[in-house]
Amino acid sequence: MMREKHRYILVESTASMEGMENKLYNQLFYTIGSAEYSNVNPKIISAKGNSVLIKCSLEGFSKLVLALTFIKSMEKSPVAFYTIKASGTIRALLAEGKSGKALSPSA
Prior knowledge:
4-stranded antiparallel sheet; 4 helices
């Protein structure tokens, strides 16, 4: 049996995401739809400050990124999500970029 392949996505938001994990799950479920949500299989690894680290299935990666762009408000407050980086491993995702600054979900 083959292991499911995943993608890790580092996302920045215009609002603080601490304590908002359940609201983000609800918005993703509403945006993606119940039929495709299980195929995307999003899991929030960490949410600190304005950064969110999300794990999803390889097949659902493009649907998740698209769904994040359609989320415009959470709790009646405007919000926007920007995909910073995506990778197959957390180590590569958080590795230093060309700027010499390490990416971290706590930034």
